[in-house]
Amino acid sequence: MYSSGFEDWLRAAYWRAKEMGVPETTMKSALATLAAAGINDGEQIELHVRAARYGDGYLIDLADAQWQAIHVTPQGWRVVSGSPVYFTRTPSMRPLPMPAAHGDIGLLWQHTNIPAHSRVMVLAWLLDCFRPDTPFPVLELVGEQGSAKSTTQSVLRSLVDPNKVGLRGRPKTVEDIFVAAANNWLVSYENLSGLTPEQQDAFCTLATGGGFASRQLYTNGEEHVMETKRPVVLNGIAVVATRPDLIDRVIHVDLPTIPADARRDDADTHAGWERDQPKVFAGLLDLFSAALAILPTVKLTQKQRMADYERLGEAVARALGFEAGEFQQQYADLVRAGIDRALESNAVAQALDKYLAERVLPINWQGTAGQLYELLNTYSTPDRSTWPRSPKGLSDQLRRIAPAYRAKGIDITHLGHSREGARWRITTQKQYATPPGVSRTSVGGIRYGEHK
């Protein structure tokens, strides 16, 4: 009721009926009355943005003038003129293309700079963006200048959530992130040089679902709450996800540099994508339907943090002709690489690695946080600016890096408090980053175009 769109509609309706403008006080009174009547007397209806779960499949809002949607099920997909669920739209949303009669998802790689070994990961991420009932992984595109990061990100976004402003600059505050999430289905930021710890925590919240609360008005004590769960895509020259809890949720893709003789001008790039986008979108829907048909048969014995994405990715890979377990192996390798990045940027992890390298296996250290603090203080690290200033600070850091070390086969456990202080134990354990029973040498097939 309080949106600018409804106010404009109401003013226009009043003009058609009375041929005169609405006084401002009358408009405020009318909006307040209609809002109160709707809240107290109206029917409560669940609204969706861009995608919704429906039956054994999903509905995707095309956001066109005819309010058409696409219903994807394990049996196939079709365009429906009357959606059985309600969708809402924001002023910046733009329509998805009408899918072509015959899809060809292999054309996507002609318009993006995704390396061959990451293509199945990206396809699984694209399809996961249409599943609002599961957590969303964060796609991180990293590459040098001239690696087509922004072009690739624009193309991927246009297949999920076209927008008036497809790529946005670095958010200034955490509130900016949640405002963007409230007004977009896909949260998209480009050319990031870094993110604060609070902003990285905000992206973690968006991936799994959560909210942001602030004072509604400076004149009262009510809260304004924005609760959202959204897919996210980021790009930058350097890695922007550096905290372990965000890295666990990230699909990291390194984009190769494009040679000078292989570059294309923007006019040709846009014209080519406008021509091929309906075919690629149709191919994506074909793959989505095939993956949904395979998904009930996918059973994972060992799961990573983003288990729903991993299970869908395994179904996508099998639909493309890859061997069972191959996607799970690739994802495990991606998780392992993320763990290494997380520990490389942590001063405590650098010192702990040096200490552990001097120990004889199996490792079994036990003591207080103060004893460990004095012990690790003797190992120099290149950057001491993030070094904890007290044993308590060390305990906080150990809790953050413990999941990463556990995946590497080192168990860091808090044993509680004693009179001497917090007690910790560091021991070697079985490593779980690689799923059991998955071959490293398996080779998958190819369907729906080249993906390897």
Considering the chains and any ligands shown, give keywords for the structure.
alpha/beta, 13 helices, 4-stranded parallel β-sheet, 452 residues, 4-stranded antiparallel β-sheet, 15 strands, 17% strand
Q: Could you describe the 3D structure shown?
A:
The protein is 39% helix and 17% strand. The protein has 13 helices and 15 strands. The protein has a four-stranded antiparallel β-sheet with strand order 2-3-4-5. The protein has a four-stranded parallel β-sheet with strand order 8-11-7-12. The model is unreliable at 432-449 (pLDDT under 50).
Largest sheet: 4 strands, antiparallel
| Strand content range | 15-25%
Radius of gyration: 25 Å
Number of strands: 15
Which structural class do you get from the secondary structure elements? alpha/beta
Average pLDDT, to the nearest integer? 86
List the helices and strands and how they pair.
Layout: H1 4-18, H2 24-41, E1 47-48, E2 51-54, E3 57-61, E4 69-73, E5 76-80, E6 86-87, H3 119-128, E7 138-142, H4 149-158, H5 174-183, E8 187-189, H6 197-208, E9 210-215, E10 223-228, E11 232-236, H7 244-247, E12 250-254, H8 266-294, H9 307-319, H10 326-344, H11 347-357, E13 364-368, H12 369-377, H13 391-407, E14 410-418, E15 421-428
Parallel strand pairs: 1-6, 7-11, 7-12, 8-11
Antiparallel strand pairs: 2-3, 3-4, 4-5, 9-10, 13-15, 14-15
